[in-house]
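step: validate -> pass
step: tokenize input -> pass
step: predict -> running
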Amino acid sequence: MLALAGSLRSKFLNLTALPLTRRTRHVASSDRRDGGQNITNPALPEVCQMIVQAIHDHREAALQLELQALQTREDLPNYLKPLLPKLLAILQGQRSPTLADDPDLDYDDAAELLLLLEQLTNTQN
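step: predict -> pass
step: emit ->
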């Protein structure tokens, strides 16, 4: 228990230099890397894996069409409005972590984007 408390303390202390939104996003992405679940948008990790698979299989265009169609829905939830353009940008080849810097993104969605970008960068190297 003490080791866990020390580990958490060091994670938080190392983050104090970052702005609050980046700290929150960093903690969320660290939690996801350590096996935590995305509880506010549990479908997003699956969507991210679909993107990885589409890129791997060279089927980006088909998934782009699906996401673009989703983007035009009138009943699109508000949290998806800033997220979908980022997913489309990734499908179109953008790999900049600054995609997750949009203040309109939920912190956990931004963290999930960072994990997606890390995964894509690691598989391309």
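step: describe -> The CA atoms of residues 26 and 50 lie 23 Å apart.
step: cleanup -> pass
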